[in-house]
Amino acid sequence: MSFVRNAWYVAGWSTDFGDELVPLTLLAQNLVAYRTSDGQIAVLEDRCPHRLLPLSKGKRIGDTIQCGYHGMTFGADGACVRVPGQSNLPKSAYVDSYPVLERYGIVFIWMGDADKADPALAFDLPELGQEGWHVHHGDKLHIRANYLNVAENLVDPAHVSFVHPTTLGNAASENVPVHVKTADEVIVAWRWIRDAEPIGFFKAFGGFSGNVDRWHYYYLHMPSTAVIDFGSSDAKLELPEDQRNKGVRIFALHFVTPVTEDYTIDHWMHLRNTALGDDAASDQMDAMFRVAFAEDKAILEAVHQEEQRPQKRKPIRIAIDKAPNVYRKRIRDRIEAEATDDLGDPVAPVFVQHD
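The structure assignment produced for this chain is given below.
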């Protein structure tokens, strides 16, 4: 399985989880989630250790889940608290529980070693907690494709001109150079299109009619969270790159969650520095995003289908693939690192390293 496990993944929005048992799948692992009486979200392995019936098919009793087959009952920490017909509780009578982090109305689950679940490792963006920004949770895009293809598509400004010609791009950007920076932990790809016709999105939302300067900055956070900082300003302003807040600026956040090797959910939302508190503007933007993201979905699913077919030759890579190539290598390195335990530097070793 090509999954990084020691990471926080988005399971959904806070509003997705309440008193009911919610089955979900992350990294090919079936889970069940619910809010306990104190408002916290509990996430457990969705499989009774007795006859393997999913616990989500059972029922909730207080803060516990009773299996729907023979009534074994488990607490929010995964420990078995009751076996009908006997007083002793076998040591193996438990289900795994998963650390949960909830912030900004987003629910994160740590899918790896629980003792490594550091909240500081979860995605954050300063603007999420700053005044002057409107935060709006969007939707979930279900894509029948591997998450790596979905994530690398979100650090690829070059595709916008061709996949989204009426929404997020147009022909003016086809030959504009893409800049890439891979030295830091976050991979960045960006470009500016100066003094060009506004794209369809900003004609509808920004109200631009004359030429604009527009930008696209793509930030890919490991293992699969993307931030797209894009916007426009009147070309006459000749806006410097570090003064993007003076234009119409939007952050589109994509939390790419691997469900299985062949199925991905992209939880998307946005922040904007204009139309604060305007729900009608949020609805308008959602409608435009859905059109654009459906275009991505069609491309990614078609690519995934072809990847499953026999290939006579290796796919080629071109100049614009720099950021995706680095991303793939980092994923491979992290998966390999998780496959073994590093005991650190040896003490009194019986060998001597000479190179």
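Interim note for the steering committee: The radius of gyration is 23 Å. The chain has two domains: 8-116, 126-331.
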